[in-house]
DNA sequence: AACAACATCAACCGCGGATAC
DNA sequence: GGTATCCGCGGTTGATGTTGT
């Protein structure tokens, strides 16, 4: 795995993501899946670091993200879990489907922290001491019960291979639709549609697609290179060209 | 209407663990 | 076993929006 961090070292863009960048990232992941964050930006046509891409995807573009304000139940859950787990935002997020650790963290600092302090000022020190005792129990509970959203990605991305050619017609249509979207809502509804297609048809009818994850996680599917090739610098150019061609053809 | 103060949240940074070589 | 790299996490920052004066 000892590879240079070419993408990281290259001049990378920072700051807010443009809709065009979002489109590119979504289109790329939809077509090839998540296989290596640090090497994805280049073939995806993005001047971003892998870290930035991952963050954007995990916190904003992922199709299963629930947007909008937190419900009472969610608030209660966060308060309760924070009481026992402290600032383990990813663990808390794992118990709240559709919510990201970043979102929960922000919500905590902007809304719940005050309430926590206002309602339980004398208990804070006590809670701190209690945390250590309760921690292992809570973790065991979560390991057994909670959906490990972040780990889904880990397992699907840990082995590096490369993109696979799926059903290009469907992908191109989806990609074109993605790039026609202007709002997050449009993108999400497009995701929903494209998943229905992929889950029911595309993946199962693609002879080169080996399904190891449930269909609902198809966008995390480990990509496969054509005929045993691997993702290296030489093939990199191939995917760069492919991506550029897709830009020309479909966008 | 103009400005300041505050609130919100997307994004960045740095660190540590896991893993590949 | 040592080193390089990737990934995910938590803390923090900065831009933008909202509210108050």
Protein model, in words:
- Its main location: nucleus.
- Keywords: DNA-binding, Nucleus, Repeat, Transcription, Transcription regulation.
- It is found in: Nucleus.
- GO terms for molecular function: DNA binding.
- InterPro entries: Homeodomain-like_sf, Myb_dom, Plant_SW-associated_TFs, SANT/Myb.
- This protein has 251 residues and is an all-alpha fold.
- The protein folds into two domains: 148 residues, no CATH class; 77 residues, Arc Repressor Mutant, subunit A.
- It has eleven helices and no strands.
- Helix 2 runs antiparallel to helix 9 and helix 9 packs antiparallel against helix 10.
- The longest helix is centred in the middle third of the chain and has 22 residues.
- It is elongated and about 45 Å long.
- The two termini are 34 Å apart.
- The N terminus and C terminus are likely disordered.
- The structure holds a DNA duplex (21 and 21 nucleotides).
Brief synopsis:
The chain has eleven helices and no strands.
How would the global form be characterised?
Answer: elongated
Largest sheet: none
Class from secondary-structure proportions = mainly alpha
> How many distinct beta strands?
0
| Total of DSSP H or I helical runs spanning 4+ residues | 11
Distance between the termini: 34 Å
* Topology pattern, helix = H, strand = E: HHHHHHHHHHH
Ranges where pLDDT stays below 50 over 5 or more residues in a row are 1-9, 121-176, 195-251
Rg on CA atoms, Å: 20 Å
Q: Return the domain count.
A: 2
What is the average per-residue confidence, as pLDDT, rounded to a whole number? Answer: 60
Tell me the β content: under 5%
Query: Helix share of residues?
Result: 55-70%
